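Narrative of accomplishments. A recurring question from our advisory board has been how the design workflow behaves on a single, concrete structure rather than in aggregate. To address it, we present the structure tokens for one chain from the evaluation set, followed by the sequence designed for it. No filtering or post-editing was applied between the two.
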């Protein structure tokens, strides 16, 4: 029994000494020679724990994709618009958008290594390009097919305003396609030729949107406004999309009715803003409508309550209109 105990202790000591004196893995030196950039996208993460080291590596890879895709997208959109400013360009990518794309890439990790020299864990985070491309390509195809379907649908519309709405939706889906394509280009070189015609089609949309918007002049009328708060906001949001909006003439009629619905709240004054927006063609047929009910706003005077309520609600209405065109 005594010999067995000594033997076990000796074995444990050997294991412990072996782990403490083990040489660092080769990737602790020049990891890019072991994981060449032609085959891998790789970053080294570090942290106080293994999980922190993994997270650090993932963040570094996400930052690489985010910076590269953002820069390319902004350049493309600027080139496509060529001075045409009739719609919002896609904002920079969010962390959630990048993460949702990278989740499809099959991210892998090496075995972690603990460095006693700086009391840190290290781990290599890497993506095998060819494997990731096979997994990610279906997303590009799905976005391309969705864009093409919306574009063809827009071409079949008879009403000019409905055409604009449909092309606007196709433009947003086109940006989804371009964005996913940029991720794909970072994974695999030489894929541009496969999607050249689709990219060219997306690039035609800024000029098409401007043409359709200018053909949809709107005669604007509003009632119930206060200090022209809704007047300025609603005219601006449609003008920003390229529409000609004025009070005198127009092919379409843009009508806005604002109700403040005042009420007493103890000794204070309250308003409940409600906004009705309608756009009709020359025959009186509705092509767009929106009703938006704001929150209750309370102040010591009715004027102050209306000012606060109208400003806040007009901003919310602007967002609703933009979202409506994106999801038409």
């Amino acid at each position: 029994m005594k010999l067995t105990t000594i033997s076990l202790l000796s074995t444990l000591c050997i294991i412990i000494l072996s782990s403490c004196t083990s040489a660092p893995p080769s990737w602790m030196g020049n990891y890019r020679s072991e994981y060449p950039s032609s085959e891998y996208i790789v970053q080294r993460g570090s942290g106080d724990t293994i999980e922190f080291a993994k997270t650090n590596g993932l963040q570094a890879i996400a930052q690489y994709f985010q910076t590269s895709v953002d820069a390319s997208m902004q350049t493309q959109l600027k080139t496509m618009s060529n001075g045409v400013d009739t719609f919002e360009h896609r904002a920079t990518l969010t962390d959630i958008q990048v993460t949702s794309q990278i989740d499809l890439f099959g991210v892998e990790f090496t075995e972690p290594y603990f460095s006693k020299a700086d009391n840190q864990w290290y781990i290599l985070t890497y993506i095998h390009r060819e494997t990731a491309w096979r997994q990610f390509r279906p997303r590009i195809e799905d976005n391309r097919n969705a864009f093409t379907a919306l574009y063809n649908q827009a071409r079949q519309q008879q009403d000019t305003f409905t055409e604009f709405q449909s092309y606007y939706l196709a433009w947003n889906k086109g940006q989804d396609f371009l964005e996913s394509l940029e991720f794909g280009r970072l994974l695999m070189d030489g894929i541009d030729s496969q999607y050249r015609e689709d990219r060219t089609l997306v690039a035609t949309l800024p000029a098409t949107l401007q043409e359709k918007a200018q053909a949809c002049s709107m005669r604007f009328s509003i009632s119930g406004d206060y200090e022209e708060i809704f007047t300025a906001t609603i005219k601006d949001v449609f003008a920003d999309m390229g529409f000609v909006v004025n009070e005198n003439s127009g092919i379409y009629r843009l009508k806005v009715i604002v109700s403040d619905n005042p009420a007493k709240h103890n000794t204070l004054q309250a308003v409940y803003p409600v906004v009705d927006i309608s756009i009709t063609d020359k025959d009186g047929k509705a092509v767009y409508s929106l009703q938006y009910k704001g929150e209750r706003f309370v102040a010591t005077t009715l004027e102050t309550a209306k000012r606060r309520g109208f400003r806040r609600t007009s901003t919310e209405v602007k967002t609703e209109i933009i979202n409506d065109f994106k999801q038409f």
